[in-house]
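Human:
If only I could read backbone structure tokens as easily as an amino acid sequence. I am handing you a single protein, as its sequence and its fold in token form. I hope you can help me see how the letters and the tokens relate. Thank you; the sequence and its tokens follow:
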Amino acid sequence: MAEVVRIDGGSEPPATPSLPQNIEAEAALLGALMIDNRLVEDVQLRLKPHHFFEPLHGRIYESILRMTDKNMVANPVTLKPMFDGDEAMREVGGPAYLAQLTGSGAAVIGARDFAAQIYDLALLRALVGVGRDMVEGALDTSEEVAPLAQIERAESELYRVAEEGGTANSVKSFGEATRLALEQAEKALNSGGHLSGITTGLDGVNTKVGGLHKSDLVILAGRPGMGKTSLATNMAFSAAQRFVRDQEDGIDPAKSAGAPVAFFSLEMSADQVGTRILAEQSGISSENLRMGKISQQEFRSLARAAGELSTLPLYIDDTPGLTIAALRARARRLKRQKGIGFVVVDYLQLLQGSGKGSAGDNRVQEISEISRGLKQLAKELDVPVLALSQLSRAVEQREDKKPQLSDLRESGSIEQDADMVWFVFRPDYYVAAKQPADDHPDFAAWQEEMQRVYGTAELIVAKQRHGATGKVRLRFDAKITKFSDPTDSDYLPEMRG
């Protein structure tokens, strides 16, 4: 250990600061609780046994909670049998210590203040622990040096402490809850009667689900090639664009139907996502963009679209192999720095769990951790989270290719944690795969069928906590990978009803 050098030239070992604690307040609170068990109701919601600095006090508090929970009287006499064999109790004089704690009846008056102080000091100790771990981790270079990973870990720990400190706000009166519900209803009314959350950019979807709601986890699933990422980028762009437009119109950001967006792309790079959005907005094929097959006029249109998009509050994180903990840390940082109000994850199965489980833990358990983590993120940040998900190959083995909830990979937890589950389905994808040879007798029938379904798509709402399930008709332009609302001419007789 390095010496502390004094100004006079001498040296002395540094004094080890003691952790924040107040043993006397803990003793006084326990005495007050044993004198008047009714006080337990006032403190138990916030104060937990691990908040006590002295482990013995934590165990006494836990025993008091256990007894009062069973409608039994908790006092030195009834608690004595529980501590007859407790080693720490023996060191302070045995069970008689319980009677000593009740020595001052005046403590009953300040019980709530004692509880608040014990809780605050416990938070400070947790903060000291985070700081110590940060220092030790930064000084340890024996293993792989990964400062960014350490920063993310520290952020997560700090947020955990902050989250615990905010539990008092988690309980809302019914009046508050109804006020929030009324605000949502007012927002829907002002939008024309169909939008209470963040816009998806598609009128049909907005009408069906009311937009994307705060604290909701929405799963968008489909087989490869269905256009999941395209639909997600469409929605991300629409939300960011609407936010900018509402700001220009002088609308309060809290009342905007748009929001700054965080797009976590674990599959595609940021430039690929950018190319998709550019193609959608400029009307130029993304394939032509990548290969440079564009005219000067198209390039000018592209440059103009790029200029307009450059100011959008759409933030893309294309870090591969993110853990759910790292993603949550990054989302919280973006919430703090950029004020994001919508999170997109492409896609769920590419996320990794914490890796803290046993070697026998399987992928299903890991997916459970990830889906639970995404739902927690939605609630923590109070934003909608749209997570894309792959479907199992069971779809391909059925005659009817429309996806079902059971087709979700590792479906149990995903289906349970999600507030909404959407499936994107394009019938022309499967009809195209059945194309016969030009001289085949069935070619004419296939061609007719292809013409009927070409460019059509469905968004199937398979689960919705806020309303009814069903499907929404959409158009899909494969050249620019853009979904849109169908026009009246798109509704052929076969599609009505």
User: Anything to note?
Assistant: The chain has two domains: 23-165, 199-495.
